[in-house]
Amino acid sequence: MSIEDRAKAAAKNLEGKAQEVWGNVTGDPKDKAEGKAKQAESEVRNVVEDVKDEVKKTLD
Fold first, then answer.
1. Is 43 exposed, middle or buried (0-12, 13-18, 19+ CB in 10 A)?
2. Measured at the alpha carbon of residue 48, what is the angle toward residues 30 and 40, in degrees to the nearest 5?
């Protein structure tokens, strides 16, 4: 996985956590849900990149 892709996934995860916390503080269920969705997107990005790494190792 490229460092850039991992950094983007980490940033998306942090953004999602912050938005979820903000939703908890303000009582806004939309912000909470969007924050959780961003965290899930980050996890998917990491899994996809891990699969790419495994495929590359297998082919090398």
1. middle
2. 15
How far is residue 58's CA from residue 37's CA, in Å, rounded to a whole number?
Answer: 32
In this structure, which amino acid lies at residue 2? Answer: S
Global pTM value: 0.82
Contact residues for 2 (Cβ-Cβ < 8 A; gap 6+): 49
Which residue ranges of the chain lie beneath pLDDT 70? 1
* 53 close to 3: Cβ distance less than 8 angstroms: no
Q: How many Cα atoms sit within 13 Å of 50 on the Cβ side?
A: 7
Q: Is the dihedral angle over the CA atoms 54, 56, 57, 58 positive or is it negative? A: positive
